[in-house]
Each structure stands twice: as C-alpha cells, then as structure tokens.
Specification:
Blueprint: H1 5-16, H2 20-53, H3 57-106, H4 109-114, H5 117-135, H6 138-159, H7 161-181, H8 186-208, H9 210-215, H10 219-271, H11 277-319, E1 339-347, E2 353-362, E3 367-371, H12 378-385, E4 393-398, E5 401-402, H13 408-414, E6 415-418, E7 427-428, H14 429-434, H15 442-451, H16 455-459, E8 468-469, H17 477-491, E9 495-499, H18 507-520, E10 525-529, H19 533-536, E11 541-546, E12 549-555, H20 556-560, H21 566-573, H22 575-578
Parallel strand pairs: 3-10, 3-11, 6-9, 9-10
Antiparallel strand pairs: 1-2, 1-4, 4-5, 7-8, 11-12
The chain binds adenosine-5'-triphosphate and magnesium ion.
Residues 113, 348-349, 354, 372, 374-380, 420, 502 line the site of adenosine-5'-triphosphate.
Length: 579
Amino acid sequence: MNVPFRKYWLLQKKYMAPYKRQIVMLTILLLSNIFLRIINPRIIKFYIDSVSTETGTTLLYQAAILFLTIALAQQVLVVFSVFISQNLAWGSTNSLRSDLFRHSMDLDMTFHNKHNPGNMIEHIDGDVNNLSNFFSKFTLDLLTNVLLIIGVIISLMIESISLGLLFLIYVFDALIFVYLFRDIAVKHWRKARDKSTELFGFIEESMGGLEDLRAQGANKNVMRKFHHHSKEEYDATYTSFLYTTFFIFSIWAIIALSYCLVFLAGIPPFLYGKMSMGTLVMVYMYAGLIIWPIMNILSQVQDLQLADASIERINELFQTEKKLEDSGNEVMEEKPIQIEFKDVSFEYSENNPVIKNLSFDLEPNKILGLIGPTGSGKTTIARLIFRLYDYQNGEITLNGIGIKKFSLNEIRNNVAMVTQKVELFNASVRENITFFDKKVPDEKIIEVLYNVGLKNWFDKLPEGLDTKIQSNEGLSAGEAQLLAFVRVFLKEPKFVIMDEASSRLDPATERLIEKAVDRLIIGRTVIIIAHRLATLERADNILILENGEGVEYGERVKLENDSNSRFYELLQTGMEDML
Ligand SMILES: Nc1ncnc2c1ncn2[C@@H]1O[C@H](COP(=O)(O)OP(=O)(O)OP(=O)(O)O)[C@@H](O)[C@H]1O
Ligand SMILES: [Mg+2]
C-alpha cells in the first residue's frame, strides 16, 4: 500500500509543533474515552448477570447509574475532543496556508506565467483544506483506534481465550475486506478533484477576461465551455459518490452479519450453560463497537491517500525555488543612475529569443525613448531591468555594477515601473496607492494625488482615501495610469521605467499624463516606452527595437535631423504606421 505516511508526518510535525499542550490534552481525552467504551459493556454484563442471579437491588441500581454516568461522560469527552481538534486543525492549516501564500508570492514570474490565479487558489486554499480534516487528528485517531481494538480483544480474552481469538479472526477478516475495497472510490475522487481545479481555473480566466469576452460577443461560447467543465465535474463527483455509498453500505452489511453470527454462535454455549446471558450481550456490544475503529483506521488511510495528491502538490510548491539569484548585496549610490546594456540576450522559453544581443548606454539623468512594433520586446526590456526575469547572456549594469550583484529588494526600491496595464486591488484608494503600507501619511498621498492632476477625480470620491476601488472598474485607463504615477512618486526612485498604455486616452487625461511625466523625469534617469510621438519630445536618446534587436540608437536631435535615419522616416510617416 503506497501510503504517504512519511511525507504526511513531516508536514504534520512542522505545523503541529506549536500545539503541544493541546495535543497532550487531546490524547488524554481520547484515551479516557477508549477506556470508558471498553468498560461499559462489562457493566451491562454485570447488570444482566446480577439480575438473573438475584443479588440485591442496591447493586443493580448502582450498576445502572454507573452505566448511565459513563455513557454521559463519554459524550462530554467527545465534545471536548472535537473542540480541541478543530482548533488544532484551524490553527495549523492557517499557518500552512499563509506559508504557501508567502512562498508563492515570492516565486518568479516564470512560475506564475505557468500557473493561473484560479490554479493557485486551488493550491493555497483547496489543497490545504483537503488536509485540514485530519491534520490535527490523523495520528491520534490512528493510535486510539488501534488501542480500542486491542482493548476490546483483551477484555474478551479475560472472559475466555477462545472468544478473544475468535474476535481477532473477525477483526482480520473485516480489515482485509475493507482493505480490498478501500480503493474503489479513491481514484474517482481524485478525478473529481482534478475536474474541480479545471473548473476553477476556467471561472477565474473568464471573469478576468470579461471585458474582452463581451467585446468579442463570446459569452455564449464561454457558457458552453463552462457547462462542459461543470458537467465533467458533476459526473466525476457523482460517480465517486456512488462508489463511496456502495462502500459504506457494505460496511453496514458486515455489521449486521456480525450481529447474526454472535447470536448464532452464542446459542450452543448459552444453552449448555457455558456462557451467561450477560456475557452474550457483552459480546454483542463489542461486535458492534469494534467495527468502527476498523472502519476508522481504513478510512483514515483512505483519506490520506486522497490527500496524497494535495500533500504532493503542497510539497512541490514549497520545493519550487526562485530561479532568480538573490545573493547580491551591492548598495545603490545616492545619485541618478547610469544604465548600460552589453550584448544582452534573453528568451522566455528555450530557442525563442526575444531580446537579441542588445547594447546601449544611457547616462544618468537622461531620458531614453524606446519605440518599436508590438511584440518587439519593449516591455521585456523593462522586466529585465526590474529583474522580473534574468537575461541569459551579456550583462546589464547600473552605475557600472552588474544588476545581479544587487539584491532584488535593492533594485526594486530604487527602480520604479509604471506598467502598461495598471493592476488595481479591490481595496481602498489609500491601500491601492501605498500597497497596504500603513506608514505613508495621508497628507503626503493627497499632495501627490493633487500634483499628478488627480485633484478633480479625488475631490469627487465620496469617502476620500477610504473610498473602495472595485478592482479596475470605475477608473479610466488614463486615471489608472495616473494612480500608478502616484505610487511611483511616493517611492522616490532614482530610475523610472514607464511603459505607456497603448490604448488611446482622451485629450484631457493625456494632458494630465504629459504633465505628470514632466514632473516625474526631473532628476531621474528614465526609460519611456512610447506609443505616442508627443511623449518622445522629451527624450534625449532614442532606441528603436525590431524583433528584439536594437536597429537604431542615438541622440534624438541628431536622428531627427538625419534624413537617412529610421527615426526621421518615422517622424515623416507618423508612429501609427510603424506601431
Ligand atoms: N511572459 C511571457 N512568456 C513568453 N513569451 C512572452 C512573455 N511576455 C512576452 N512574450 C513574448 O515576447 C515578445 C516580446 O513581448 P513584449 O511584451 O516585450 O513586447 P512589446 O514590445 O512590449 O509589445 P507591445 O508594444 O504590444 O507592448 C512577444 O513575442 C511576446 O509574445
Ligand atoms: Mg509592451
């Protein structure tokens, strides 16, 4: 049986370690419960046998009261142990979930490109929830159930060795039966889980791309695909449910059979006076009692197999390491940055070069206008400087130091990027601007908001900085970009990369952006990825990119006046032709 005990044990050990006290309490509760469950049938036996041998009534009353008290105590113990084990489960799974989230947030873009958010939700929440059911009680349950079986058999052996042996055989038979059939539902459950992951991924992607879907009138097709995914999930879940029901039904059949057997086998010894009525009833009670631990042990093992996929995926996620080295400790000097690309080549996937032997050099405080057709690699250049990816060949230096020699933090604290599509959180305006950093004072935020020209927009907000932004709704592309500018201004970076939105903006917003850019470039080295000629007017240098190659690089003024240059040609024909 390929049960991932070891993997599970390692994970459990790590996340249960802070809960030693509760675990000890739980163990005591469970052990007491076992003791009571084994002792109770003996009290019944005593009661019945006493009735038939006519001992005094006091003793009978005492036995009856003891039986009731124990039964009640058992229930109380169960309530307390459920309470403690739930607490354990929540606590430990919460820490597991946050560790997974932190780790995923830290992973490279290469990883995240391959895993869509819906997928990640299934990892971070779904898989963890899968484990939570038995995270707190698996080992304890296994232990107590084994102890319960052993206890019952010992109790019977005290009565008669042959009875004990008979039960031992019964336990083995039942174990073998359940073991043989245990897998019958597992693979169906696994399939159901995979289907549900697919469904989640699809829902997430559809919601994310809603605007595009509508624009294409593709809603109907998406619904069709959705029905397809949900039907697959339904079918898989339904099938696994059927198998599980069959399995449970068989268990009840075994219990009924064992009762019959106890009574049938009990007739001769009872008739010949070898066994008392009380013993017979006790054996009957034990027969019912012992099947549950057997069931429990196997269903735990089964659960664990089910969770195997989750454990596997959780471990895999934890073992996925950042590909970007982050061992550098150079510190950025307090001055505008000079940047140089030396023969840099980069590919996202093998044999698919996106940047090819690119070289250029930008002095501190200068502005580079980067242009090129769509897909030529402009955004990629920005990502390389920001170290979202590492290039394969050549070198990028900041102030003459290779960028891999800085820590990722150092780079990201000093370089800011305004992306083409600004991502907004479903959170307040303040949180969207500060990225949940509580230390930035409101006055500062508002000052910058006014400075970038968002005064009109801001003054209309019903609750000021506390107004909730419904992610990407309610803000135009231009306003979103301006908000991104606010983020950058607050960071006060030495180097700014601005990836202009390729969508058209209304003239008023465009003017605001122009003004914001004017402020942004003061005292900083800047790369502007331009989609409009107007933006290029401030550039000191121009780099034209085509298919990942730098096809022209030089001072803007010189290129403008050189009738053989591509830039000159571009100015004549207009950007639209090229882009
Ligand atoms: N994450 C990625 N994984 C694989 N390939 C990518 C990835 N991002 C971009 N590419 C590819 O790299 C090439 C350059 O893309 P990039 O986004 O840098 O172009 P761009 O010049 O910014 O285009 P645009 O003007 O449309 O913004 C394209 O062929 C694109 O398909
Ligand atoms: Mg781009």
